[in-house]
Amino acid sequence: MDKKKTPAPAVPADSVTADGMPDSDARADSVAGNDSVAGTDSVSGVGTAADAAPTDGAPAASRTERRRRAHAGQVRSRSRIMRFVVSPILLAAALVCAVFAVLTMTVWKPAPTVTASAAISTRYAVTDPGVLVLIGRQAGAELTSDHRVCVALATSQDASGWVSGRRHTRVTGLSSWTELSTRTLTATSVTGAGGPVAFKDSDLWRKVSCGTSVSLRTTASASSPLVLIIDTNPAAPASSTAGRPARLSLTWTRTHTTDTALPLWLCAGLLLLAALLCFFIFSLSDRRRRKARERVEGETRGDPELEHEREQDNVAGADAPRWANDHLRSHRRRDSRHRHSRRHGGIFSSRAKPSAAGSSSSDKDGGKAHSPVIEEPGRANMVARLQETQTMAPISAPIRSDGVGSEIDNGEGRPPSYTPPSNEEVQDYLRRLAQERLGADETLADGGQTADADDTHTDDTHKTEEDE
Amino acid sequence: MSALTISHRQTPGRPSRRRAGRILPAVLSCLLLSGLLTGCGSVPQPSAQAGQQQSQASLTAAQARRIEKAVHRVLDAADGSKDPSGLSERLSGPELEIRTSQVNVLKSTNKADARMILPTGIRQQVLTQTSGWPRNMLAITSTTSDQQSERLLVFNQASARTNYKLWGLVRLFSGVTMPSFAVSEQGTKEGTAADSGLVSTPRQAVIDYAAALNNIQLTSADKVNASSLSSADKARILRVTTDQFRTELADLDSSVSKGVAANEGTQKQVFTPDLDSIKVFRSSKGGDLVVARLDSTWTRTAGDGRLSQPASDAEKALFGDGKATSTMRVQYVNVVALYVPPASKTAKIQALGAERQPVKVEAVG
Predict the structure, then answer these.
(1) Helices (H), A144-214
(2) Are A315 and A229 in a shared domain?
(3) Which of A156, A157, A264, A285 to mutate to test the interface with B (most CBs of B within 10 A)?
(4) Which of the listed residues A216, A233, A253 is the one where a domain comes to its end?
(5) Do B51 and A201 touch (CB under 8 A)?
(6) What is the pLDDT of residue A311?
(7) Where are the alpha helices (DSSP H) in A41-194?
(8) How many CB atoms lie within 10 A of CB B40?
(9) Side-chain half-sphere CA neighbours of B295 within 13 A
(10) pLDDT, tens digit (0-9, with 9 covering 90-100), for A238-297
């Protein structure tokens, strides 16, 4: 029996249920209608249905068309939003981050040195431990005065021993980025014998420098105990505590700077990447799917085997939900994977059997591994399918070069092609189907005999009842 | 019709909500990023752990070298000018007296004592961890150009406002093995006169050695045991090994005794330790290096009608134009370096070096 390809019947308007889904009953009827068309008696039946179809199918077609246009419009709107709203916003944010990063590296870059100063009025001054390594490991001290002063580098214990019991100034840190914080300690009991050793001659100092303007540089670790000790009146006797005014400046050289620009650069890069993704990728999702599907269908159009599989998988009808055909695809994949013989018989396999002119295809199909058609349910576009099925030829049979559906055995076990029904037959069928869905009784009387064995039985029964 | 399409139709407001959901995080991110840039933060403050000195020498090697050079300058100046008046700038303690005597002898005799040579090369520096005062440091010189033995130098800083001075100097005995000390950067710990866990405390070790010197002829265990000393005194002497200093002193005592005895005279030398100025350095192997001063008085009495004269060129120089009598009293300053090992059954106190110099010669009587 030639394989009769049943066209996708139009879904009548009133077959759509309240939730917007096509009426399952109407769909079942359309399946039955397909079945009836597939039989040898389908020619006249189709012709009869086709006569009545245009009158009731036009409103359904226009609604479908409107829905398709609305969906396409949504797709275009979303694409425009991604491209011309979201992407520019992300791009602007990336630009802002980049600008901030550049400013951080140039105008806002921390100065390499920090200089703070304070006036010293006591004879002795000592920096607290850690002040010399407050900012980086390198520090320089400069002591300026209009008279001779001395500055030395020593351990905190040695400096404290030298000034023990005497009034002196402690430099404790920074009160601001330009001013040193100081505090004055009053005299207590003098401990240790005061020898005749001059400040600059003491064995306690690691480094010492004396003059009217003296400087001293040091590089120390974070835990270094070194401090600065200053004598603003070294010429006075050791027992004297009278100081002379001097100004101490400490300059630190930053040895480690926090890279605050790097996070900004990273943020700018991520935002730029997001903008590009929105512009090129996220805005093309539907179109890409459609093109991909068209590309796949175009690639497989010339492949009779894949076309045959698609036809077999589409037994439930083009407007049926995709899950209706899933069981066929899973069966096909299992068969091809395990190389078992094809399913013979079954209630659906007969619908896809080739025409009588060709030999039984089931034997030839059996045992042969066919490439499964990979379909993605998530990308199903029912509207497009409806459009295609309505505008395409009723039966999407592989087009052979000879134009005639003849049994061709190309040695690879492919099923032979079949002759598609004529356009008139299809139109008749559609008319009949529409009438059946709408429940019009006059169509049956005008439509005459049609269709397949099952529906024939039903129609005959209906006629018989009418006659009675 | 696809479920996707139907779902879009059922929720027409969803695209705008999605758009808002994408834009809002971006705006918030920009605001947060800008917040990072505002403000430079407060000024840094010294940490509480800053300046907490780890185990570290109170002097650097460079500082120690400067001290040694300063001492050499003073010594050279005094030797060159034959004037000991400037020695107090960098000398103190027994070494000041010894060096002063040596310079006076040099001035009197115009002959330099070979023992005055101080090598400039330093074989080992032993810097201490003492952060307070007084504090000390050790240095071991190389041998002299004429192959004299190495010198052990002890420097002392009495207070923060005084400099390090050479307090003691001993000539190490030939073939002696010095105890090991911690590396200079880490610094060596100074001990006390009462350190325990040793053969004896540093204080007792000095007393024991003085007892051995006071019984100078008891240079062997047999002689000690055969002596009439008390058992305690015998135990003290037996805790000390026989060394070059004791041997030389024993020989000197023996020869002087023969000469004095021939003139029906007497002689006696009494050693008295200075227990208040003991310097103790802890070895890394557990023992102590003890440097102590022992003052000794050598009294020589000639027989009736005879005069007691100086026994050496140094004594002569120091006595100068003094008028001799029948009794001569010579005061010596002795400095000894002892190693007191950790307590054990066989360990003994060992003298590593010594120095001896007459500082005063007077006729008595």
Answers:
(1) 156-162
(2) no
(3) A157
(4) A253
(5) no
(6) 65
(7) 42-81, 87-105, 156-162
(8) 9
(9) 13
(10) 888 889 999 999 999 887 666 778 899 999 999 999 999 999 888 775 556 566 666 766
Indicate the SS3 state at residue B240. Answer: strand
For residues A34 and A168, membership in a common domain is answered with no
Strands of chain B, DSSP E:
122-126, 135-141, 151-157, 165-172, 266-282, 288-301, 327-340, 350-364
d(Cα A119, Cα B45) in Å, to the nearest integer? 19
Question: Which chain B residues have a beta carbon less than 8 Å from that of A164?
Answer: 160
* Count of domains forming chain A: 2
Residues A42 and A191 in one domain: no
Reference B169, options B200, B189, B148, B198; nearest CA is B148
Which H helix or E strand runs over B172? Answer: strand B165-172
Tens-place pLDDT, residues A60-80: 668 888 888 887 787 778 888
In a domain? residue A165 = yes
Angle at which helices A24-38 and A42-81 cross, to 10° = 130
Residue reference for tokens 């000018």: B81
Q: Are A418 and A2 in contact (CB under 8 A)?
A: yes
pLDDT in tens, chain B (365 residues): 444 444 444 444 455 666 666 677 667 766 665 555 544 457 888 876 666 656 689 999 999 999 999 999 999 999 999 999 999 999 999 999 999 999 999 999 998 899 999 999 999 999 999 999 999 999 999 998 888 999 999 999 999 999 999 999 999 999 999 999 988 888 999 999 999 999 999 999 999 999 999 999 999 999 999 999 999 999 999 999 999 999 999 999 999 999 888 888 999 999 999 999 999 999 999 999 999 999 999 999 998 788 999 989 999 999 999 999 999 999 999 999 999 999 998 999 999 999 999 999 999 97
CB atoms within 10 A of CB B201: 21
The pair of three-digit structure tokens given for residue B95, joined into one six-digit string = 């070494």
List chain B residues with CB under 8 Å of A77. 15
Q: Which of B15, B51, B163 sits opposite A225 (nearest CB)?
A: B51
Instruction: Assess if residue A120 is contained within a domain.
Output: yes
| Residue that is written with structure tokens 């070979």 in the block | B114
- pLDDT tens for residues A335-367? 666 555 555 544 444 444 444 444 444 444 444
- ipTM > 0.90 (yes/no): no
Say which CATH number the domain at A192 has: 2.60.120
Same domain, A333 and A451: yes
Residue A447 bridge partners (DSSP): none
Closest by Cα among B299, B280, B294 to B340:
B280
Q: How far apart are CA A69 and CA A63, in angstroms?
A: 10
pLDDT of A301 above 80: no
Tokens for A330? Answer: 């899973």
Question: Among positive and negative, which fits the CA dihedral A215, A216, A219, A222?
Answer: negative
Residues A197 and A343 in one domain: no
Instruction: Give yes or no: residues A40 and A131 share one domain.
Output: no
Residues A399 and A444 in one domain: yes
Q: How far apart are CA A358 and CA A320, in angstroms?
A: 29
**pTM greater than the 0.90 cutoff:** no
Contact between B208 and B311 under an 8 Å Cβ cutoff? The reply is no
Whether A384 maps to a domain, the answer reads yes
Instruction: Flag if A155 and B164 touch (Cβ within 8 Å).
Output: no
| B69: chain A residues, CB-CB within 8 Å | none
Considering only CB atoms, which chain B residues are within 8 Å of A203?
A: 59, 63, 66-67, 70, 157, 163-164
Please state, in angstroms and rounded to a whole number, the distance separating the CA atoms of residues A379 and A32.
Answer: 27
Residue A258 inside a domain? The answer is no
**Residue-number span of the structural domain to which A315 is assigned:** 13-83+281-467
Closest approach of B19 to chain A, Cα-based (Å): 7
Inter-chain touch A21–B6, beta carbons under 8 Å: yes
Q: Between A67, A78, A225, which is nearest B1 by CB? A: A67
For A205, name the nearest residue in chain B, comparing CA atoms only: B63
